[in-house]
Structures are given as C-alpha cells and as structure tokens.
C-alpha cells in the first residue's frame, strides 16, 4: 500500500459560473486515489459544499457590473487583491487554479508571479481573446504554467503564444451528455 500524498490547492472563482466549475473540479480531484487534497481560496456555496475549506471572502463582494460601479468599489477590489495575494503566499499551495474572471484573476497572477515561483499556476476557462482583446493571450502566457480550455478550437489558438494548453471540454456539454445517457 502506498502512502497518501497531501496536496494543497488554491482555487479562485469569483462568479457563480466559476463556482459551478470549481465545484465540479473539486469533486473530480477528490476521486484521485493516493492523494489527500486540501482546498483553499475563493469560491461560492457550491465549492464550499464540495470541499473548499472556506472562502477567503464572499464572491458577492466582487459582483460589479459596468464602469459606474467600479469607481466606488475600486478601493475594496484593491484590498481584496492584496488580501488574496497574502493568503496565497501564506498557504503556499502546490497549485493555484484561477477560474475564469480575468479582470480579477489576471491581476492576481501578475502580483504573485515572481513571489511564488514554486507554485504551479493554471487558468481554467480561456479568455475569449479569439473574439476580442487578443493581447490577453500574450499577457496570460507570461504568468501561467497551463491553460485549460473548454472550446475545442481554443487549443490551436493559444499554442501560437507558447501556452501549455489542454482542451478539457465544456461543463454544459458534459451536463447535457449525462442527461442523454
């Protein structure tokens, strides 16, 4: 019998859709034998129910719609970025997985990049750079070790930027497939 390996994972999902994706990811990882995962980070009720230790702060604190809501909340967002950065450094996980939410997650990745070279950084749900803001692909390639894509054509697009990319499928497709079977 082999020893169980303890494995700390820090997840960041700041939107309800990311909470669903993060919850499914936690459930899938818990099925791996010989690993005892400890989940930390930011997530909603679904991730907490699936095994996230607790959320660093409620994801509702980042519910901002439109440019006019950003200005009054800018200091709050900056405070949450700093709080998240300190928490990641304190926990020192083996892996950091950021889920969607590029406005928040890309800033975190940039802030911690040089301070945490030992942490593997994965971004789940590629930004739609093929549709708009193509500069994000080059930006992201500087700060992550792996990109998990949900659409099949994204793999080829991101390879141009030397991103270690893996197509894993779309969660909605998987839900529809399960209903049919």
Largest sheet, in brief, is: 6 strands, parallel
The radius of gyration computed from the alpha-carbon positions, rounded to a whole number of angstroms, is: 16 Å
The N- to C-terminal Cα distance equals 35 Å
Count of separate DSSP helical elements: 7
What structural class results from the helix and strand content? alpha/beta
Order of helices and strands: EHEHHEHEHEHEH
Number of strands: 6
Beta strand %: 15-25%
Q: Taking all residues together, what is the mean pLDDT?
A: 85
Overall shape: globular
Helix percent band: 40-55%
What topology, given as strand order, has the largest sheet? Answer: 2-1-3-4-5-6
Stretches where pLDDT is under 50 for at least 5 consecutive residues are 173-181
What would your notes on this structure say?
The chain is 45% helix and 19% strand. The protein is built from seven helices and six strands, in the order βαβααβαβαβαβα. Helix 3 (67-91) packs parallel to helix 4 (102-112). The chain is globular and about 45 Å long.
Task: Briefly say what this structure is.
The protein has 181 residues and is an alpha/beta fold. The protein is built from 7 helices and 6 strands, in the order βαβααβαβαβαβα.
Features:
single chain, 181 residues, alpha/beta, 6-stranded parallel β-sheet, 7 helices, globular, disordered C terminus
């Amino acid at each position: 019998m082999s020893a169980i390996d303890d494995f700390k994972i820090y997840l960041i999902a700041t939107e309800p859709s990311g909470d669903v994706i993060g919850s499914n990811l936690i459930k899938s990882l818990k099925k791996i034998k010989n690993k005892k995962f400890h989940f930390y980070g930011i997530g909603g009720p679904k991730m907490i129910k699936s095994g996230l230790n607790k959320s660093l702060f409620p994801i509702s604190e980042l519910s901002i719609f439109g440019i006019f809501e950003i200005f009054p909340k800018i200091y709050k967002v900056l405070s949450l970025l700093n709080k998240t950065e300190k928490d990641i450094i304190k926990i020192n996980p083996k892996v950091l997985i950021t889920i969607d939410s590029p406005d928040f997650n890309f800033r975190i990745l940039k802030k911690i990049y040089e301070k945490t070279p030992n942490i593997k950084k994965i971004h789940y749900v590629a930004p739609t750079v093929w549709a708009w803001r193509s500069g994000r692909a080059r930006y992201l390639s500087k700060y992550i070790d792996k990109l998990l894509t949900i659409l099949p054509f994204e793999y080829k697009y991101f390879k141009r930027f030397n991103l270690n990319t893996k197509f894993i499928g779309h969660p909605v497709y998987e839900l529809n497939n399960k209903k049919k079977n």
